[in-house]
Automatic annotation (TrEMBL):
S-adenosyl-L-methionine binds at C125, A126, A127, P128, G129, G130, K131, E148, D179, D197. It comes from the Eukaryota. It comes from Piliocolobus tephrosceles (Ugandan red Colobus). GO terms for cellular component: mitochondrial large ribosomal subunit. InterPro entries: MeTrfase_RsmB-F_NOP2_cat, MeTrfase_RsmB-F_NOP2_dom, RCMT, SAM-dependent_MTases_sf. The keyword Transferase applies. The active site is at C251 (nucleophile). Keywords: Methyltransferase, Mitochondrion, RNA-binding, S-adenosyl-L-methionine, Transferase. This is NOP2/Sun RNA methyltransferase 3. Pfam families: Methyltr_RsmB-F. The gene is NSUN3. It is found in: Mitochondrion. Belongs to the class I-like SAM-binding methyltransferase superfamily. RsmB/NOP family. GO terms for biological process: rRNA methylation.
Length: 326
């Protein structure tokens, strides 16, 4: 059943066509949690110097050090070449956590957004909150709107923000429970930057299952996701001011949820332009393995031996001043 989930399902003449973009080596890493690696994102609002020293002694090194020209100096992320993880910190009311454990590839959408101090930014599908936390490690926005439609995930998001962000900064953050497809109409042309980390067929959590019935159900769900993702992007475009930047990301290998979604947006919106981010792949190849996407505006990180990060698809778009087609 794993093979059928890992392969992109395309129905043609009654058959399923395998267009799996990864090799057997990548497949084994993706479905083997003991091979996974975890990066350590330091919380600039609370971490002690001793923590950095301890990470160095354990063989961790700084992610992106010297490789990205616009990498924010305030963001510090450490990773090890070997699998494993340091213990997670428990949530304690009134105490800020010192670090956040994450898949290092999930920082790429945040860095692609290039957030600057004072900007208004929307994280449209924000739970569990890791990318919102990472955004606040990069800069101090004038306004950060974190939206999550799922009520259970919304509680997780609120707890994450409370665990990492000091009270003065909490005052510039709004948390909402709106259907993301309605955000554009609710707040038209409000934001300088918008991140759409869309619901997707999460290949790490979806694939690691011995339940064949559940796997079949997920394949069916996978076919319905692109429409939702396109609708979320159309809403995000409405919420974005002319001249603003939109970053779309997923944690799936599915071309239907990645390149095909972006192609549909570019073909149906004359005021949306692709932005070349191939430079990130060139400068970060020592930390990540990238698969070809056929798009200058899109990157796809796939898990590899010693670089077990991803999957993570990232696309960067810009809204022009011309009128688009809705």
């Amino acid at each position: 059943m794993l093979d059928s989930v890992l392969s992109e399902p395309h129905e043609a003449k009654g058959r399923v066509r395998n267009t799996d973009p990864i090799s057997q080596n990548h497949r084994e890493i993706l479905t083997s949690p003991w091979c996974w690696q975890y990066a350590v994102l330091l919380n600039r609002f609370s971490y002690p110097f001793e923590l950095e020293k301890d990470l160095h002694l354990k063989g961790y090194h700084t992610l992106f050090q010297g490789s990205l020209p616009n990498y924010p100096k305030s963001m510090k992320c450490y990773l090890s070449r070997t699998p494993g993880r340091i213990p997670s910190e428990r949530h304690q009311i009134g105490n800020l956590k010192k670090y956040y454990l994450l898949n290092a590839a999930s920082l790429l959408p945040v860095l692609a957004l290039e957030l600057r101090d004072g900007e208004k930014v929307l994280d449209l599908c924000a739970a569990p909150g890791g990318k919102s936390i990472a955004l606040l490690q990069c800069a101090c926005p004038g306004y950060l709107h974190c939206n999550e439609y799922d009520s259970l995930r919304l509680k997780w998001l609120r707890q994450t923000l409370e665990s990492f962000i000091p009270q003065p900064l909490i005052n510039v953050i709004k948390v909402s429970e709106l259907d993301g497809r309605e955000m554009g109409d609710a707040q038209p042309e409000m934001f300088d930057k918008v991140l759409v980390d869309a619901p997707c067929s999460n290949d790490r959590s979806w694939l690691f299952s011995s339940d064949s019935q559940k796997a079949s159900c997920r394949i069916s769900q996978r076919r319905n996701l692109p429409l939702l993702q396109i609708e979320l992007l159309r809403s995000a475009i409405k919420a974005l001011r002319p001249g603003g930047i939109l970053v779309y990301s997923t944690c799936t290998l599915s071309k239907a949820e990645n390149q095909d979604v972006i192609s549909e947006i570019l073909n149906s919106h004359s005021n949306i332009m692709p932005m070349d981010i191939k430079g990130i792949a060139r400068t970060c190849s020592h930390n990540f393995t990238f698969a070809p996407t056929g798009q200058e505006c899109g990157l796809l990180v796939i898990p590899d031996k010693g670089k077990a990060w991803g999957p993570m698809y990232v696309a960067k778009l810009k809204k022009s001043w011309s009128t688009g087609k809705w």
